[in-house]
Structure formats: C-alpha cells, structure tokens
Amino acid sequence: MSLLQFLLMILHSIFLEFCTCTDTILPSHPIKDSETIVSNNTNFKLGFFSPEGSKNRYVGILYNVTVQTSIWVANRDKPLNDSSGTVTIMEDGNLVVLDGQQEIVWSSNLTNSLVNSSAQLLDTWNLILKDNSNGRAIWQSFQHPSDSCLQGMRLDPVSNEDDKNLITSWNSPSDASTGSFSFGVDPLNIPQVFVWNDSNPYWRSGPWNGQIFIGIPNMDSLRNNGFHVVPEDNGSLYMTVSFANQSIPTYFVLNSKGCLMQKCWYDGYEDWRVNWTNLENECDVYAKCGAFGICNLLDSPICTCLEGFEPKNITEWSKGNWTSGCERKTQLQCERNNSLVKEGKEDGFLKLTSVKVPDFAERSYVEEANCESRCLSNCSCTAYSYYEGIGCMQWGASLIDIQKFSGSSGADLYVRVAYSDFGIAFHLSNLKKKNMDLVIALTVTIGSITVAIFTYWMAKREGCKKASALLQSLSRGKSSPVYSYQSSPQEKLHQVYIEELPVFEFEKLAKATENFHSMNKLGQGGFGPVYKGKLPDGPDIAVKRLSRSSGQGMAEFMNEVVVISKLQHRNLVRLLGCCVEGEETMLIYEYMPNKSLDALLFDPRNQDFVDWSKRMSIIEGIGRGLLYLHRDSRLRIIHRDLKASNILLDEELNPKISDFGIARIFEGNQDQGNTVRVVGTYGYMAPEYAMEGRFSEKSDVFSFGVLLLEIVSGRRNTSFYQDEHSLSLLWFAWQLWNEEKLLKLVDPKISKSCFQTEILRYIHVGLLCVQEVANDRPAISVVLSMLSNEIKDLPAPTQPAFTGRQASLDTEFPQQSRTRWSVNNVTITALEGR
Ligand SMILES: *[C@@H]1O[C@H](CO)[C@@H](O)[C@H](O)[C@H]1NC(C)=O
Ligand SMILES: *[C@@H]1O[C@H](CO)[C@@H](O)[C@H](O)[C@H]1NC(C)=O
Ligand SMILES: *[C@@H]1O[C@H](CO)[C@@H](O)[C@H](O)[C@H]1NC(C)=O
Ligand SMILES: *[C@@H]1O[C@H](CO)[C@@H](O)[C@H](O)[C@H]1NC(C)=O
Ligand SMILES: *[C@@H]1O[C@H](CO)[C@@H](O)[C@H](O)[C@H]1NC(C)=O
Ligand SMILES: *[C@@H]1O[C@H](CO)[C@@H](O)[C@H](O)[C@H]1NC(C)=O
Ligand SMILES: *[C@@H]1O[C@H](CO)[C@@H](O)[C@H](O)[C@H]1NC(C)=O
Ligand SMILES: *[C@@H]1O[C@H](CO)[C@@H](O)[C@H](O)[C@H]1NC(C)=O
Ligand SMILES: *[C@@H]1O[C@H](CO)[C@@H](O)[C@H](O)[C@H]1NC(C)=O
Ligand SMILES: *[C@@H]1O[C@H](CO)[C@@H](O)[C@H](O)[C@H]1NC(C)=O
Ligand SMILES: *[C@@H]1O[C@H](CO)[C@@H](O)[C@H](O)[C@H]1NC(C)=O
Ligand SMILES: *[C@@H]1O[C@H](CO)[C@@H](O)[C@H](O)[C@H]1NC(C)=O
Question: Apple domain: from which residue to which, for each copy (predicted)?
Fold first, then answer.
C-alpha cells in the first residue's frame, strides 16, 4: 500500500465519519438554535426557523432551497420565543426540543424506556428515531406529518379513533400551530380523499376507481404524479404520494385556507410554483349548492337546482345562500300511495354528463346493464352512475356536492325524476305562432349617451339627423318590428333601421340549441345567457338570448347590434344574424370552439396548451382588434369591457373581441366621454373610469395592459390567494419591476430562455399600458409598434394604478369569496359612479 493510498483511506474514513454526523442527532451531539443537520443528499435540513412574519422559533425539517420551505414542524403548538432552544436525545431515548430553561416543549413521547437511540434525517425527508442496538426505527416523522406530504409518505384511513396520521394545516402563514383544515382518505364505501374544515368536509376528490379519483378534473394527467390509494391484502388500504419526476422537488401542502396544492420547484425562478390545486374555483367547495343543486362555473349564478327540482327556500336561494338546497317539484310515482294517480306514468332518469358524482355513493356489484333497473326497483334510490373500475353506484336520500365539469372529465349521472318533470320544459308545438307585424315599443330610460350613439350612428350612416327609419323585417321579410327608444324629454324619439342583418327563425334556434338546454349553455354574456347550437347542415353557432323583461338588457342588445353589425375584422367576433319573435330577442354569432381566453388561460388543465408564440399572437391579435376599433373603422369605438372572458378563440386560437353591449361610439375628434353609469369589470377598469366615469381610448389601453400581464403570467389579476400574499397582479408586477426580477412574473409554462427578452419586453409594454395617468399610457397603435419591436427604446413605466378601491376589492378575501374564484367574472354595474 502506497502512502498516497493510505492517506486517501484516512481521508475517506474521516469523510464518512463527517457524513454520519451531519445527518444525525446523538445524545452527545445535540443541536442548538444556530445549527442544523442535513440529509446525506443535502436536499433536506433540520433546525430552528421562524416563519415569515413571526419571531417564534420552531424546530422543523426544511427543504434546502433558497426560499425557506418547511415541510414538517415539531413544536408547532409550542413555539419558542428566543434562540435558546436545543434539540437533543434524552436519557430515556426520546427525541425532544428543550427551551432555555431545559423544559421539554416537544417530545417524541415514546413510553417504553429506551436508553440508546439516535435521530437521523434520511434522504427522503423522513426523520427517524432509531434503536442503536438493532437500527430499527421506533418513531418517524412520516407517521406524524404536519401540513405537507412528500414522495413515499403513507397516510392511513381516518377511521381509526386514535389516529393522528393526518395532514393538518397551519393556522396562518406565520403561525404553525394546528389549524382547522386537515387532509386524508376516507375509506367508507368507495375510498375518497377529503379536505375537512374541523370535521366538516370542505373538498372531496370523488370516488377512487383503482386508478384515478373520478371527481378530479383531468386527473389522468396526475396519474402516477399525485396521490393514490393502495389496497392491502387484508382489505384495508392507505393513501400515498408519488411524483413522476423525482429530480424536481415536489410536494403537497395544505395551506391555512384549506387549499391543497402541489408545488414544484422551478430552478430558473428560484421559487415554488403551484402545479395543481384542489380548489380551482368556488364549485370545488364541498356542497356549494346544497342538496340536489349543481354547481357550474359557467352558469350565472353558479348554482342551479337539478332539473325536476326547485329551491327549498327561494328567499335564501335568491340571496345567493345555496346551502339550503333544492327539493323535488313533483313527487315520484313510486312514492305515491294514492290510488287516484295509479295511472300516472313511471318515473324516469335524467342524464347529466361530465359531472362530479355526489357524495355517499354506494357500490353494488351488478353489471352496467342492470344498474338502472336496480335503482328503479328501489324507491329510495335517487340516482345511479356506472363507472369503469368502480361499477354500479347508487345514491340514497339526497344528492350533495355535484359539479358540472367543462370538457369530458367526471362521470355521467342519472337522476331519478317524476315523469312530468322529464325535461320537457317547453314544448315547441304549443308555442303560439304570433303575428309578426308587431311593434315593440320600449320605453327605456337610459343615460343620454346611448341615445347619442343612435343619433350619431344614424347621422353618420344615413346622412340624416332626423333619423326615423324602421327596424326592418326581422322575420320572414314581411313584418316590421320597431324599436322605439324614448329618452329623456329633451331628446327626440329615435328609431333605428337595421338592414343587411340576416334573420333566424325562433323555432330553428330552439331546435339548434335543444330548447336552450342548460347543457348547451356556454356562459353568460352582457345581457343574457349564451348557448351553443347546431344548425342542420350548417355551422355551429352561438346564440345569445336576451333575458326577458330586462330593459337594460334591451339597451345593450341594441347597442351591440348597432356597433357590431358595422364592424368586420378578423379579431372581432362576427355577428351572423338576429331573431326577434314575440318576447324572444336573440343574436347569433359564429361559434368559437375554444371558448374564451379566460377558460384557456386560467384553467390549469389547459395551460400547457398555450405556448409563448401562441400567447404572443393572441396578445397581438387583441391589440389589432382594438386598433381597428379605435382607429381603423369608420366609427371610433371604445369597448369599455375588455377582459379575458370577452376574448373568444377560434379553432386556431385566433382571438376575437366580443361583447359590445356597453361599447361607445365617438364623434370624429371627440376623445373622451363621461358617464354617470360606470359599467365594466373591476380589475380591468382604468382608475379614471372606475372612480370618475371618464373613459377614452386610454381606458381600453389600460384593460389591454391588464390582459397582457394576465396572459404572460397565466394569473388572474384578482387571484393571488394561493400565495397567501394579498397582492394584485399589477402590484406584484410593479414590485418585481422595482426589484428587477420581472422574470418571476412569467408563467413557468412558457419560460424558455430564448424568449426571455421578448417576454420581458411584453411585460414592460404591459406596465406602460397600466400607468396611473391616462395620458402617460401609449395609444394602441404605439403599443403594437412597441410589441413588434419597431419602437425599440421603451420609456420606464411609472407606477401602475392600484387605487384604494381597487386594491380593497382585489385583496380582501371575505368569507363570501366569489370574486377570487370566479372564472366568469361577470360585468358589474355601479350606478353611483358619480
Ligand atoms: C451519502 O451519499 C454518498 C454519495 O451521495 C454515498 O456514497 C454514501 O454512501 C451516502 N452515505 C450514506 C450513509 O448513505
Ligand atoms: C444545500 O444544498 C447545497 C447543494 O445543493 C449544498 O451545497 C449546501 O451545503 C446545502 N445547504 C445546507 C444548509 O445544507
Ligand atoms: C418567553 O417564554 C417564556 C416561557 O416559555 C417566558 O417565561 C418568557 O417571559 C418569554 N420571554 C419573552 C421575551 O416573551
Ligand atoms: C406528549 O405527551 C404530552 C403529555 O401526555 C402531551 O401533552 C403532548 O402533546 C405529547 N406530544 C406529542 C408530540 O404528541
Ligand atoms: C449506544 O450505542 C452505540 C452504538 O451501538 C455505542 O457506541 C454507545 O456506546 C452506546 N451508548 C450508550 C450510552 O450505551
Ligand atoms: C371553517 O369552519 C369554521 C367553523 O367551523 C367557519 O367559521 C369557517 O368559515 C370555515 N372556513 C371556510 C373556509 O369555510
Ligand atoms: C393490514 O395489513 C397491514 C400491513 O400489511 C397492517 O399495517 C394493517 O394494520 C392491517 N390492517 C388490518 C385492519 O388488519
Ligand atoms: C425531470 O426534470 C428534469 C429537470 O427539469 C429534466 O431534465 C428531466 O428530463 C426530467 N425527467 C423526466 C423523466 O421527465
Ligand atoms: C404538473 O402537472 C402536469 C399535469 O397537470 C404534469 O404533466 C407535470 O408533470 C407536472 N409537473 C410536475 C413537475 O410535477
Ligand atoms: C326561508 O329562510 C328565511 C330566512 O332564513 C326564513 O325566514 C323563512 O321562513 C324560510 N322560508 C321557508 C319557506 O322555509
Ligand atoms: C343560509 O341558509 C341556511 C338554511 O336556510 C341558514 O341556516 C343559514 O343561516 C343561511 N346562511 C346565511 C349566511 O344566511
Ligand atoms: C306511503 O305509505 C308509507 C307506508 O306505507 C308511508 O310511510 C308514507 O308516508 C306514505 N306516503 C305518502 C305520501 O302518503
């Protein structure tokens, strides 16, 4: 053996010695507040820490990354108030945390007295206390989790009385004490994963089918990358977590608001990103719509009763308190004992597609073909569903926590209803054919500006100030309905003549939309619901149906007709025609298969689908559409309600601006308007408009800037709750700008280093658009030149507008949490806008 070899051997043994020391606590090697032990792979460390915003000292296991990330806390309910603590092994073998007075504040609490043990932090983040005589683990942190769940952790079902094996939230981001939310698996009937608020369900995964939880949308992509249920030979089961790519630090954490998140570390950003969360939206909250209610994010309001059911307490329901739920309109045939109705027709089943099936499913082992008859034969069976891997599911007394998914996630559910409620809400054959020579005289008291639009439009178009044309034959050429707008006394009566707009028959539209069936509902437009329709041998269409008896809706309807029928641009949605028959007033548009930008961008299931070049072309498309409105078209139009849900996408994801219900037309050199009626959407409204009712092209530019930042970041302006930072997107962006960390704003899904300069340029332009002072904001033509790099030197932005009013709307999360979760942020109207 050479000397060198000998020296190497010595070095090697010293190194090994060093290694075993750094990941282990021995009675002879306690750790003080300033010290840590580090797992052999250096991924994890154990030591004292203080959460952000707190001075308390906790002992915890932390991810060894640049952002402090604790995944387990020992003395969570008994923090230390100074740095005098130690972690050590007591004579009885217990692992303990001691304060400065050597009092035990936390202990592993093993009672069988051991004398010789040591604590080791393993590479898997598991902290084990082992018996030195045989190396067996006698206690492990895996079995006493805090708020986080990592690869390989095992959670047993909660049924055990004394089981502490649950993930429990912190009380607040700065307070690690046990909070009210917990997370675990409930093995009853069919295993489901729950988040509980104390002992009440707060979120539910839906049943486990052996591979996925069928109530988690697009769980397929979480397969082998998330939590799953593992059965054991003796019939019991447990839940475990695994992640597809082990080289990316990933974990689940239950935050203090009950939000379960999968967080992944992104090296490029030196920060965690939320890759999945259980609470995407309000509909994910357990039993949001009460018994027999169904939650659909695209509906407004989001809760409706199942067909055949009506609100139990209509007063509460209409106030938006849906927890009271719904009840049957008509008693089921099978429940009637009365011989008088013996001849009544059999009950039937209504099919709901792509839903999260209700809670309390009972499994029966019958074939699919017999599932329905089995349910029918039992009067207390209210619904059934059949799902691969689970089999026949049936429900008893009430149906709770049903959610309608967009897309094909979820299962088909068959709900039992009485014959008379069998979905034949309205029979076409009974519809009275009305004489179409009708004159609809509407007395609409609206602000003078809408009338000014008509005056202006008439003047422009007909070259005639005394406009008195007629709304032409809107049905079959012979009839002539007239809209007469009677305005304030000082205004004349104006009548509007619409030509060139094709007319659709009501019956055809009703057929095309299956009688405006709720399953065909695409969303809620400015003045009424929008349905998808299919014309026989024709294209798919979108039908906007004016809510009946709504004077304001009528004004917006007419406004939309006037504005949009004159416009033609590839980035504006195309109006195909209209329909005015009886009480029905409808507009027909080209159908946009990719729905709205809102759904595409903020629905995490879709996000991967939009890469940077696509997002770039969407931003540019919106900009070009806006330029056309502001400058290119014969009329100058201020949209006033530009937002993600008003941008529709065609099959190639080309953006089309829609919803001109509150747009305004300007005279040639007029460049600013005033209104007493502020209409728009908070978060997108420029401050001068929201506060003072002043609007101009620059207020549209502001909204465009918000949209741009949302598209680049993939985050909704008003949705910063996940980070537990009460910030709005604009404020966040402004902070990052000042810290020169703008890249942190970029959606990680589009982060490619080769695009970075371009992305940063876009953000810069976005910040210029949202500047507080309207005059500082560039015109949309300039914005487009800046984006395309024709204008190379961009001025530094001044502080964006996040006015007190906006900030409070954006940052407060009251119990009634609509705004932050609503995908469908409905246009709101504030009448007192000064
Ligand atoms: C620590 O890690 C090194 C290399 O990563 C490995 O060679 C060694 O065996 C590990 N030690 C222990 C005790 O696992
Ligand atoms: C964290 O990990 C890095 C390697 O990734 C290592 O160099 C460093 O020492 C670790 N930090 C601690 C506190 O262990
Ligand atoms: C810290 O806590 C101890 C009790 O655990 C208490 O006696 C002491 O006064 C506290 N010190 C401060 C500065 O609050
Ligand atoms: C240990 O036991 C004590 C007394 O029974 C109890 O107060 C404490 O909460 C236990 N600690 C843990 C970590 O279970
Ligand atoms: C504990 O066990 C280790 C390893 O087996 C041994 O080196 C040490 O002397 C023991 N300590 C006591 C106090 O028994
Ligand atoms: C959790 O439950 C408590 C009462 O048990 C309630 O006050 C609180 O609002 C609930 N939290 C949520 C987010 O529902
Ligand atoms: C089933 O077996 C596992 C180990 O295989 C054991 O941990 C569990 O306690 C057993 N459950 C029951 C109910 O016997
Ligand atoms: C895991 O992630 C790393 C880093 O992002 C990547 O380089 C690697 O290709 C990924 N592995 C797999 C199997 O996806
Ligand atoms: C994030 O989620 C998607 C599916 O939603 C998955 O494909 C991807 O692998 C996840 N990323 C990580 C790092 O787990
Ligand atoms: C509905 O709820 C309100 C308030 O909770 C109550 O006063 C009223 O009696 C209820 N009505 C019915 C029909 O239960
Ligand atoms: C909602 O309605 C239920 C039952 O009708 C009632 O008990 C509860 O107090 C209501 N909640 C609110 C916030 O009004
Ligand atoms: C029908 O009869 C059963 C018992 O025969 C009774 O419990 C139930 O209340 C009756 N239902 C009605 C609606 O009369």
Answer: 334-418
For residue 345, which of 334, 360, 355 has the smallest C-alpha distance?
334
Q: Is the CB of 116 inside a 6 Å radius of any atom of ligand 5? A: yes
> What does the buried/exposed string (b/e) look like for 336-367 if buried means 16 or more CB atoms within 10 Å of the residue's CB?
eeeeeeeebeebbbbebebbbbbbbbeeeebe
Is residue 552 within 8 Å of 446, Cβ to Cβ? Answer: yes
Question: Which residues are marked as active site?
Answer: 641
- Nearest bound ligand to the CA of residue 131: 5
221 lines ligand 9 (CB under 6 A): yes
Q: Is the CB of 799 under 6 A from ligand 10?
A: no
Helix, strand, coil shares of the chain as percentages rounded to 5?
Answer: 25, 30, 45
pLDDT exceeds cutoff 60 at 494: no
Query: 22-143 belongs to which CATH class?
Result: mainly beta
pLDDT tens, 689-731? 877 778 888 999 999 999 999 999 888 876 654 444 446 788 8
Instruction: Give the number of whichever ligand sits closest to the CA of residue 314.
Output: 10
Q: Which of 319-328, 449-458, 473-482 has the lowest mean pLDDT?
A: 473-482
User: What pTM was computed for the model?
Assistant: 0.62
pLDDT band at 525 (very low <50, low <70, confident <90, very high): low
Architecture of domain 610-787: Orthogonal Bundle (1.10)
Q: Matching CATH topology for 22-143 and 148-279? A: yes
Mean pLDDT of 293-310: 85
Domain locations in the chain? 22-143, 148-279, 296-434, 450-590, 610-787
819-834 average pLDDT score: 29
Q: Whose CA is nearest to atom 3 of ligand 6?
A: 197
Residue 561 sits at φ, ψ, to 5 deg, of: -60, -50
Nearest CA to ligand 10 atom 13: 313
| 809 pLDDT tier (thresholds 50, 70, 90) | very low
CATH class label, 450-590: alpha beta
Q: What's the CA-to-centroid distance between 238 and ligand 9, angstroms? A: 23
CATH 2.90.10 fits 148-279, yes or no: yes
